[in-house]
What we know:
By secondary structure, this protein is mainly β. The protein contains 2 helices and 10 strands; from the N terminus they run H-E-E-E-E-E-E-E-H-E-E-E. The protein has helices at 2-16, 104-108; strands spanning 28-36, 39-47, 61-65, 68-70, 74-79, 85-92, 98-103, 113-119, 125-131, 138-141. Strands 5-6-2-1-8-9 form a 6-stranded mixed beta sheet, covered by helices on one side. Strand 5 (74-79) and strand 6 (85-92) form a beta hairpin. The longest helix has 15 residues, at 2-16. The chain is globular and about 40 Å long.
Amino acid sequence: MRIRLVxxxxxxxxxxxxxxxxxxxxxLGAAWLRLEAGALAARVELRGVDDxxxxxxxxxxxxxxxxxxxxxxxxxxxxxxxxAVRVLLRYDVVGGxxxxxxxxxxxxxxxHRTFVHVARADGAPIAEALLxxxxxxxxxxxxx
Length: 144
């Protein structure tokens, strides 16, 4: 578990660190999701996207429970002068056996990668993966 924390922290630092070489990166993102009572909270950070892009808003994540697509009930977006786009989302989740998370840009842009971390309300990790076009979604079993 400690190794996962170190990897997640290193990835977050790499995502937020300034670097001129990033200008040629096809895109890098991270999504932290937390399952709460009856809800799913998500924080998404993207690099290499246009702030006006539809993929940097409500459609930034394709979230499904048992195959049914969920629409966010709240979306807040902000952009940094250094080019990072941050999106906060909230989804109503009632029951279900499986959560699927698919970042939109992984399918839309060749070479884009997104690190996805899903945790319980207490912060305990449930699943995480670095998604790319060869593995575009993360399936997470939900407790009954």
